[in-house]
């Protein structure tokens, strides 16, 4: 069971059900060959990449940022492999106006080492010194373009360079089923003015789940916007990829095995690692864990027209991660690890703890949630009131100034969001430092909207009591205590399901 | 009669300093404070009257004296031995006259305005006293009294921490309305300080005011700013913010009308948010100066750290009001210079000019105590026998869920009558 910067063994009650992630699929034998093949054999209404590259054209290559994949993958990163292939094709076609853009949306700017890891030294050194490696700036009006409004009154405002290029190539890593598709450009290259239309409590509450496109209002809104972008004349060549569930390297591989399959070596490694992490100060444990690079391997790659590519890739994601789960449960337990999309090389602060448990893990389903309506979620995490001041400055103030007043996403959306979103200091730090945008903690809290509405109680085992209570949840010191507390909500003889993730899984609940 | 007296014994002051390292008020165990039998002070002149204290508060300056941590600045304006206690509600022992020239009857409750200015000392009034600014009197060592800035720091007057009478000059006596409880009344002196500080802040309607410290003074200043605005005596500041560490302080701050009650360590960030400022330099905020900041910061702590924080969070051209009693402090004043911040002291009380009218600060405080019910600030009372506990409690009030600790020094007869 993960519990932040550590893990341990927890004895679940007899009869409990554990949902494990599927075994990793075999890696592609020749990923470079698969990429070249995908570029020249696109799906949907698209010519091969070589046919779309002409001398004198403006080419912009956008790519997913530090939030994907998790943990960061061992070199070479998929983005590097794909972008090198695209650049080879562009060079062969005589294209010399090429710009790379990290599609940050409102995420923090990547550091040089992070960019080098994602793109490789060759690409970085060829572009960055010449100012041709950019990071999307959602607060730079001079480099944003308003393409129109959807029929639902949603502003569509995206990166100007990308929109005005003769070809926009977007390189995705589809870690989970909600990644990619129109969301790549409509969200990854958008401004706050555009994002606020779907990153709000209303949309999040009606996304059941984020992983289930037809039932996701977030997906629907992005598709409306994406089609408007397409209809506005933006030429997009979409490249999407899937990874297998090979998440932990070498000595940490026991973390992705079923416990009863552990070898003696796994047991010994577990004992040593868990004791060492428990004994280490959180900062040191974080350093150790964030140094882990996942042995993720590419499973599939498709390129071409956005919707067709995304449909194929999403099917592949489900094939790798999908697990059939029969019936809902009264109580779901989840061990929360040290990492989420928004704290790579950083701290999983309390708001991100909530988001990881209730926004992400709770939503790893299709059909219906693993836990029944009115049920209980029991999360394991120390939930210390720790924040990275450089990465998450507005989170600190959100925790102190907003969560002390309300935990209701709708109320905070109405009363506090705008002030944070337009705060000049947060904007300054987002633009010039490595800070998430001022509005970001609100979005993280909104991600929890559906879960908070659905669940009868949220209990955090091992969580700092004051911090947990401030978020409107219940602290417990042990699973036994948590189960006693849960009985008030779900009755004396509840069913319990444990989501054994990571590695990532998608529960297909019938 | 028994009283808590401070004697000038250097070894005991040194011991108190050591003991107070374990917590404010701990100097009571080894220090210069002793519960002793004393004779009641004699009346210096005909316009002095004996007052038997009922309740007497424990103030930060009292704790500093007990712990041997007062500034040496005060050495020449106190006279040993002195009986502590300057926050006093008591009863007139005999008929007398009050500060307004009105008669006061024996047994009538009064609060004592403790500053021992020219009138009390039998001197011709100095310019400050003539203007009613008794707190600014510079004649604290002259006249027919021994040196002493206030009752409670002068060997001739007695003090509030006493089971028998102290003596007070007519100019020091203010009648307590019947509807004011003893707890309300014992807070009148600190509330007068708070009102004076609030007026020294000169807050305007567009101003953001930040208050550092949420003890009796901090909460009092907050209440005073609201009281003065609610009664039309001064503008209501746009936003009132206070850093309050303990739950009881936070609850009281909200009850007294703060717009923002935040953890003290987050006050700078809250001010930054409220004023749409940037933190110049490091984003961690703890040591960064705000590009803008509060228009007025009222420091009710008075430490080097709190003054430094006030300078960091106050906007260029803004005002810092120093209310908490400071001692020797080492701090960087570059921000004061560079940002042209006005640093203003706020001590005691006197006569205030509010909305074009002159009013005694004590009259304003009596009105405020009745309107707001500042007796709510009184969390516990002790008899003099338990002074060590009382002072330890006062020294760690916030963490023990308390705000103001007072001595209940009613004569035994009166106590038993009330308990009956």
Question: Explain this structure to me?
Answer:
The complex is a heterodimer of chains A (510) and B (420). By secondary structure, chain A is α/β, with parallel strands linked by helices. Chain A is 38% helix and 18% strand. In chain A, the strands form four sheets. A six-stranded parallel beta sheet of chain A has the order 1-16-11-13-14-15, sandwiched between helices. In chain A, strands 4-3-2-7-8-9 form a six-stranded mixed beta sheet. In chain A, strands 10-17-12 form a three-stranded parallel beta sheet. In chain A, helix 1 packs across helix 3, helix 3 runs parallel beside helix 4 and helix 13 packs across helix 18. Chain A is globular, with a radius of gyration of 22 Å. The mean pLDDT of chain A is 97. Chain B is of the alpha/beta class and 420 residues long. Chain B contains 14 helices and 22 strands. In chain B, strands 3, 5, 8, 9, 10, 21 and 22 form a seven-stranded mixed beta sheet that branches. Chain B is globular, with a radius of gyration of 21 Å. Chains A and B meet through helix 14 and helix 17 of A and helix 9 of B.
């Amino acid at each position: 069971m993960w519990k932040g910067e550590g893990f341990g063994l927890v004895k679940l009650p007899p009869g409990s059900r554990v949902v494990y992630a599927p075994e990793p699929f075999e890696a592609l034998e020749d990923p470079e060959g698969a990429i070249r093949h995908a570029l020249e054999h696109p799906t949907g209404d698209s010519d091969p990449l070589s046919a779309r590259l002409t001398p004198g054209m403006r080419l912009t290559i956008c790519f997913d940022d530090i939030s994907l994949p998790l943990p960061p993958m061992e070199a070479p990163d998929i983005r590097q492999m794909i972008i090198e292939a695209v650049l080879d094709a562009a060079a062969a076609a005589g294209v010399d106006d090429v710009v790379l853009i990290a599609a940050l949306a409102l995420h923090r700017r990547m550091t040089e080492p992070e960019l080098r890891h994602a793109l490789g030294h060759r690409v970085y050194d060829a572009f960055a010194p010449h100012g041709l490696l950019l990071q999307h700036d959602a607060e730079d009006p001079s480099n944003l373009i308003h393409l129109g409004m959807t029929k639902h009154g949603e502003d569509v405002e995206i990166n100007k360079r990308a929109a005005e290029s003769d070809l926009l190539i977007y390189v995705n890593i589809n870690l989970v089923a909600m990644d990619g598709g129109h969301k790549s450009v409509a969200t990854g290259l958008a401004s706050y003015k555009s994002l606020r239309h779907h990153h709000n409590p209303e949309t999040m509450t009606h996304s059941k789940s984020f992983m289930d496109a037809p039932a996701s209002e977030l997906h629907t809104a992005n598709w409306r916007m994406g089609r408007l972008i397409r209809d506005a004349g933006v030429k997009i060549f979409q490249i999407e990829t899937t990874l297998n569930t090979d998440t932990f390297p070498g000595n940490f591989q026991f973390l992705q095995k079923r416990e009863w399959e552990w070898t003696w070596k796994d047991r010994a490694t577990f004992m040593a690692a868990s004791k060492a992490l428990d004994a280490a100060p959180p900062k040191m444990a974080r350093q150790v864990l964030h140094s882990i690079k996942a042995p993720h391997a590419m499973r599939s790659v498709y390129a071409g027209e956005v919707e067709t590519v995304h449909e194929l890739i999403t099917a592949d994601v489900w094939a790798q991660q999908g697990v059939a789960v029969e019936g809902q449960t009264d109580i779901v337990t989840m061990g929360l690890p040290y990492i989420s999309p928004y704290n790579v090389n950083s701290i999983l602060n309390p708001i991100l703890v909530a988001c990881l448990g209730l926004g992400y893990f709770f939503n790893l389903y299709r059909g219906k949630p693993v836990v029944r309506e009115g049920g209980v979620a029991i999360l394991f995490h120390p939930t210390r009131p720790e924040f990275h001041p450089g990465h998450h400055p507005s989170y600190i103030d959100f925790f102190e100034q907003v969560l002390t007043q309300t935990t209701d996403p709708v109320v905070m959306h109405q009363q506090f969001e705008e002030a944070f979103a337009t705060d000049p200091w947060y904007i300054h730090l987002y633009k010039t430092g490595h800070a998430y945008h001022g509005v970001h903690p609100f979005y993280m809290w909104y991600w929890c909207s559906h879960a908070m509405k659905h669940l009868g109680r949220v209990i955090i085992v091992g969580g700092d009591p004051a911090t947990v209570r401030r978020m409107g949840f219940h602290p417990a010191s042990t699973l036994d205590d948590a189960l006693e507390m849960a009985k008030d909500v779900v009755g004396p003889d509840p069913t319990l399901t444990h989501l054994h993730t990571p590695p990532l899984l998608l529960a297909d609940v019938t | 009669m028994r009283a808590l007296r401070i004697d000038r014994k250097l070894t005991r002051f040194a011991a108190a300093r050591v003991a107070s390292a374990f917590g404010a008020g701990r100097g009571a165990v080894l220090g210069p404070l002793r519960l002793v039998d004393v004779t009641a002070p004699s009346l210096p002149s005909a316009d002095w009257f004996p007052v038997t204290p009922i309740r007497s508060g424990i103030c930060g300056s009292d704790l500093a004296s007990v712990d041997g941590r007062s500034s040496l600045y005060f050495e020449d304006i106190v006279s040993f031995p002195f009986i502590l206690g300057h926050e006093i509600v008591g009863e007139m022992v005999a008929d007398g006259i009050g500060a307004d020239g009105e008669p006061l009857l024996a047994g009538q409750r009064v609060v004592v305005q403790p500053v021992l200015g020219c009138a009390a000392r039998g001197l011709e009034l100095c310019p400050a006293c003539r203007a009613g600014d008794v707190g600014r009197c510079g004649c604290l060592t002259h006249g027919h009294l021994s040196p002493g800035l206030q009752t409670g720091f002068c060997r001739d007057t007695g003090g509030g921490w006493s089971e028998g009478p102290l003596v007070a000059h007519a100019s020091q006596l203010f009648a307590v309305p019947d509807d004011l409880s003893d707890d309300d009344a014992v807070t009148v002196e600190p509330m007068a300080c708070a009102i004076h500080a609030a007026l020294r802040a000169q807050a305007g309607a567009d101003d953001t005011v930040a208050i550092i410290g949420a003890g009796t003074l901090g909460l009092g200043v907050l209440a005073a700013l609201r009281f003065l605005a609610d009664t039309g005596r001064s503008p209501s500041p746009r936003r009132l913010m206070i850093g309050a560490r303990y739950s009881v302080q936070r609850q009281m701050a909200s009850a007294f009308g703060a717009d923002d009650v935040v953890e003290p360590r987050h006050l700078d960030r809250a001010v930054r948010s409220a004023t749409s400022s940037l933190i110049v330099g490091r984003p961690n905020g703890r040591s960064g100066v705000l590009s803008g900041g509060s228009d007025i910061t009222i420091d009710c702590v008075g430490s080097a750290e709190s003054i430094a924080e006030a300078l960091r969070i106050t906007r260029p051209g803004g005002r810092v009001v120093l209310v908490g009693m400071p001692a020797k402090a080492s701090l960087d004043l570059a921000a004061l210079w560079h940002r042209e911040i006005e640093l203003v002291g706020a001590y005691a009380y006197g006569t205030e000019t509010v909305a074009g009218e002159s009013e005694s600060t004590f009259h304003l405080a009596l009105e405020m105590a009745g309107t707001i019910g500042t007796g709510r600030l009184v969390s516990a009372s002790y008899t003099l026998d338990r002074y060590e506990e009382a002072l330890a409690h006062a020294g760690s009030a916030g963490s023990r869920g308390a705000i103001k600790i007072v001595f209940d020094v009613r004569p035994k007869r009166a106590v038993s009558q009330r308990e009956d």
